[in-house]
Amino acid sequence: MAKQTIPLLDLMFFLTETQQSPKHVGAIQIFQLPARAPENYLRDLVTAFKKAPIASPFNKHPYFPRFGMPEWHEDTELEINYHVRHSALPSPGNTQQLMDVVQRLHAVLLDRKRPGWICQVIEGLEDNRFAVYSKVHHAYIDGMSGVKRMYGSLSLSATDKKIVPAWSYDPDKPSAVEHRQGKKKSSVSTAGKLSSQLKGMAQAYEVLTKMGMQRLKLRSSEAQIPFTATRTRMNRTIEWDSRSTAVCTLELDQVKAVGKKRGCTVNEVVLAVIGAALDNYLDQHEEHNSSPLVALCPMSVRQVGDDSAKTQVSAVHVRLGEPGASISERLDQVVRSSHASKDEIQNVSPEAMIDYGVFIFGLWEILARTRLDQIITPSYNVLVSNVPGPGDDSLYLCGSRMLASYPISTLLPGVNINITLLSHGNALDFGLLADMHALPDLDIVVEGMEYYFEKLQREVLGKRRRHRHAS
After folding, report:
1. Are residues 86 and 214 in the same domain?
2. Which of 293, 182, 304, 316 lies closest to 228 in space, CA to CA?
3. Degrees, nearest 5: CA angle 138-139-142
4. pLDDT at residue 360 greater than cutoff 80
């Protein structure tokens, strides 16, 4: 039986997992059935999914020995009917019904005795659509590697009927999407990796030292550091496994147009919109915040050409703007905070950022387990993750065109809301996940995001767009 030691950052997701806070990530993809699709189309699709080969790491499960480091063990008796499932929505099959199903599916822990993934094909969506919901334990993949595998199962052609699901994806054989974008391989020697790791540990220590000096007022910097955020309902302890979910889509070209006009990134535009929507949410719940909310923004440190499944991310803290600021002023404030945080780590190696992430993540988990996180000042209020998508091409699954791809991620220690966004074509798809007891009505946040983005477009671009929601 093939064995492999589980890397430390991946292992953290197992060690910190609880019934109340599973550590898997997922996505809900919406597809338009092809014209004149046969009645057995979806049954045949599920059958093809079940017959597809299982590639690493989807054929492995974790093993925790009494002594020594935990390992990945290959599963020689994989039960495909557990991993690939087929269900249907009752009529009328609207989006709210779909999300009700997704939030129940996403709340349940994955069985550690089996490979940590599940795919569910959901038929019965109105307007001749269907959905594919997938979830994978975060120890298996990070956002970048997950997206590569998810889109490795899709085609650029509506006539291509070949089916290669994400669990069959071979990173050594580029998909059609990767061929179009171009794919590069990295080549780093083992000795070079060891040298980089040692250097990374020293740099991570230096980063933590600088943050400590800033916390003690012995060093001046505008960068947001851990344990300096204001406390809100988004920092309440997660007591139950029930979740609330919501999704929305913004037009990517309009987000880019705002960013170009103001000289900032797509991510900074998004953070300003989310900050305004969350402040509005708190106001509607009579929780009037007087300080800027803080977002934790994961950042990939994966090198070009690295298709390994292991997690390779770190994160920076960014202030989301003053509660009373206009949306344009808020964007300026977000940009300043984002630049200050990035400047602090611009010369830090990927290895150092991973080491820093392991330390901070472990510290947050200790505080959460001991409930000290309810006494110590929070580090952040919301996790916002931007995962780059496959580009501008239309994508298909066995002739069915993908209409949307909403990421549904996981909750990290210290907060009970995660907002992840994924781009494809001209769409910026957002998936919101929260503890249902703390934030039961995420639709208010979604409405706020749409409203404030339209307002930002009017102020920055001078466009008067169709008004859908009021604040």
Report:
1. no
2. 293
3. 55
4. no
Q: State how far Cα 384 lies from the chain centre.
A: 8
Q: Which of 321, 326, 385 is nearest to 144 (CA)?
A: 385
Pair (119, 243) in one structural domain = no
Residue owning tokens 């979806």? 42
In DSSP terms, 387 is beta-bridged to: 422
Domain co-membership, 243 together with 282: yes
Cα separation, 161 vs 398, in Å, equals 4
The 10 Å Cβ neighbour count of residue 405 is 28
For the chain, how long is the longest CA-to-CA vector?
A: 70
The more confident residue out of 221 and 211 is: 221
Domain that holds residue 168: 3-181
Whether residue 198 sits in one domain with residue 162: no
Distances 161 to 44, 180, 463 between C-alpha atoms, Å: 12, 19, 42
> Rounded to two decimals, what is the model's pTM?
0.84
Strands (E), 12-54: 24-32
Q: Is there a contact between 129 and 119 (Cβ–Cβ < 8 Å)? A: no
Q: Which helix (H) or strand (E) holds 455?
A: helix 443-461
Phi then psi for 376, rounded to 5 degrees? -75, 145
Task: Please write the tens of the pLDDT for every residue from 370-426.
Answer: 888 888 899 999 999 998 776 677 899 999 999 999 999 999 888 999 999 999 889
In a domain, 467, yes or no: no
